[in-house]
Design a protein that fits this description.
Helix content: under 10%
Radius of gyration: 18 Å
Oligomer: single chain
Structural class: mainly beta
Low-confidence stretches: 1-10
Strand order of the largest sheet: 1-2-3-4-5-6-7-8
Number of helices: 1
Order of helices and strands: HEEEEEEEE
Shape: elongated
Mean pLDDT: 89
Distance between the termini: 30 Å
Number of strands: 8
Length: about 170
Amino acid sequence: MALCILGWSNDAEAQYKNGQIGFEGGYMFLGSNSGLDNHGVLLGLRGAYKGSEHWWVTARAGVSLRGETFSDRTVVLFHLVPAAVRYYFFTDRFRPFLGVSNSFQFLANNTTDSTVYWGPGATAGAEFRLRRDLFIGFQLDAFYMFVFQGPDVPLITSTIQLNFFL
């Protein structure tokens, strides 16, 4: 009987951890109004903290290199999500979620009028357990970026993540 209880508790161990750190890579679409290439690769880091059983607060930082449509420059785009709130529907081996978010984009080495974008967004995804405290995650984000000196830009990211529970 004790062996069955020990085996059963092994499934839900990740739900009792309070933190998470992850590495991610994926695709980023940026609207053509930006003056930059629409498609690019995004590499980043993410962290999360559990507020309650189903609610988590996350943050992400990433970088994407883009060509500029008006010059030969390579623009460095820093993607920062300072706070996002997620609701996990299940918290064991399969962890689907929905959430709300916001994002800043900081551009470096560009000739466009604006170097900072900000916008609200929505997120959806799922995490799948690989090992005890190791999950693989898939995430899709959609943002509406307000450009402070120019036309607004849609932004979509799709990433795969390797997440460690702390």
